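FAQ: What does the model actually see?

It sees only this:
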Amino acid sequence: MLSHYRLCSYESIADSRRETVTQDAVSVSCTIDRRPVTLIDTPGFNDKDRTEVQILRLISKHLMEKYQEGTKLNGIIFLQPIVSTSRVTGSEATITRLFKALLGRDSFDRVVIAGTHWYNIQNGPPTEAERQTALKRIAERTACEELWGDMVAKGAQAVPYLNTQEDARRIVSVVSGFRAKDILIQKELMAGKSLEETAAGKELNKQKNEELALLRDELRALKSDRDATEMELDQLRRKIEEKDDEIFDLKRGC
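And it is asked to produce this:
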């Protein structure tokens, strides 16, 4: 499991065929605990090759295709790195806010947050010290409402992921037992909202405008710096143009 989260649902598929829906979002069918399960694998919002707007559009399109096929989601596995530092990055916080806006609070009780990257798998099984560190990192995040706290308060589970097949099957088995229903963005799009009008779209638009404002402040400060080079100014202007393009792209919808 490599992307930031998995959307899991039952379908009447008993074999292990791999169904590619798009290049970047795939449905994988298998059997776990003698039950047919379909995992919808999507890229994370921190994908280095695509913008968050492109990822949101890809996920939304895929979810709507599944919705129209009559497939409902049993639950969501949110894979989130918990590195060996107690300092939570701004990127983690913004991705988590976007994830929550995508789901809606009514879906928090169908989430399993799986902490990753807390030990080096190349060195073999984690030590007891590494396990305790992972539990500490999880406790720090669940104690913060802005991160996982509000999700856990509404019934989400937070666990360290061991990065083994057995642990993956265990987590998927838990999620597949949840009651299937739609998540917020599916309801919003089916109600006729544009991608920009959804809660996730509004959250992403807010984040992008905040980033744009910071870049413009940085450009103003750089212009007043006598030591600033034209190359530095051009690089910052390009970043502003790219951010403007992302905001405009969000208005295009799905």
